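Feature request disguised as a bug: please show the residue count (273) next to Guanylyl cyclase domain containing 1 in the output. Example input:
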Amino acid sequence: MRAGRRSAWLLSLEPARMENRNQACELWRCHGALGGHRLVTHRQCLQTFECVQLKVPIIQQLYHWDCGLACSRMVLQYLDHLDNDEFQKAIQELRLTKSIWTIDLAYLMRHFGVKHKFCTQTLGVDKGYKNQSFYRKHFDTEENRVNQLFAQAKASKVLVEKCTVTVQDIQKHLSQGHVAIVLVNAVLLLCDLCSSPVKYCCFLPIGQKCFCRNPDYQGHFIVLCGYNTASGSIYYNNPAYADRTCCTSIRNFEEARRSYGTDEDILFIYTDS
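Example output, currently without the count:
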């Protein structure tokens, strides 16, 4: 990145006045690569920024199965909606188990009144997953539960849409200060910043033994928090870690999120909730 260009103002994009998120001409604070900051309008952000990195809090998962819940906590804290007691209460009320699907996270966002849109390629459970080792253990018990959640989504005011999402759609969403939770194949997702021994098992905290049983697919949720069009990169928070924001190429990100087993699930979260 060269100094003197508009794209030099790129390191982070955050609302300058959180209470005015609903205003049409909201002011945003852009922190520059060379230091300092400036206030710009929402419209200017969309027109000028080649790179965005949102300050989404990093919250580490506690177990091998709760990456989706950790991602939800990051998003809720980013929106100033997180209350630990209320979060635990919501988990109980929604009867969330150790088998967390993207539709569960959509219902969780709805519970907290967060504006969202869940985009997927499959409205329900793909029966082909029954033979995948990642899904096999809980498939029979989960199939009916998950299909029922999809069937009741509209009545429950959970927005679900079968559609294809492009990288450009994601970048536009992030450029407006919004975030997204994405289901990826962790076996394929390679962080450019993490050390080699760790990045191939990025869904576990450092030092813990890898629990991979299948070399082809391991579902994992991450939070998208930025991009750099000049370098072709995507920034994301990996709940496996408590101390870093990860970065990968758009090509690798696309491979990981479009892998068979993900249904290309992406949960868009909006700040104007």
